[in-house]
User: What shape does this take?
Amino acid sequence: MTEQTAVAKESQTEIEQSALVPPVDVIEDDSGITLYADLPGVPKDKLELRTDSDTLIIEGEMAL
Assistant: This one.
């Protein structure tokens, strides 16, 4: 493992450890899938949803 790879892995671990996992409700019906995530303090314009393979990633920045 190169030094750069080791630093990248260490940084990723720090990010994962500081992540919060909010309570989420997922409802599936005839019209589709609806996801409700409890993210107090995170405005819609600071919310990002993306997928990575079969994983949904929700990221948000709290307003100060």
In short: The longest strand covers residues 24-29. The mean pLDDT is 78.
